[in-house]
Specification:
With 78 residues, the chain is mainly α. It has 4 helices and 2 strands; from the N terminus they run H-H-H-E-H-E. A two-stranded parallel ribbon has the order 1-2.
């Protein structure tokens, strides 16, 4: 049985990924073109990310993850 704490479905997983690569909220925000407050809101579950495809690509690059490794509460705008 999979460990539920390893799931990337929670807001905390974004924080974990960000901290794993040594970025502050403001640094990650600059990489993807949003504010540090926006990243904070995502991590606290206050709001969900609504990103363009280029922003999602930049997020994956900044966090050194594939699209599949991003938390499920991230979605790209169409």
């Amino acid at each position: 049985m999979a460990d539920p704490s390893s799931s990337l479905d929670t807001p905390q997983s974004l924080k974990h990924l960000r901290e794993r690569v040594g970025l502050s909220q403001d640094e990650l925000a600059r990489c993807i073109g949003v504010t540090g407050k926006t990243v904070s809101n995502w991590e606290r579950g206050v709001s969900l990310a609504s990103l363009t495809v280029p922003q999602v690509k930049a997020l994956c690059k900044a966090l050194a993850v594939s699209l599949e490794e991003l938390p499920d509460n991230f979605c790209a705008e169409q």
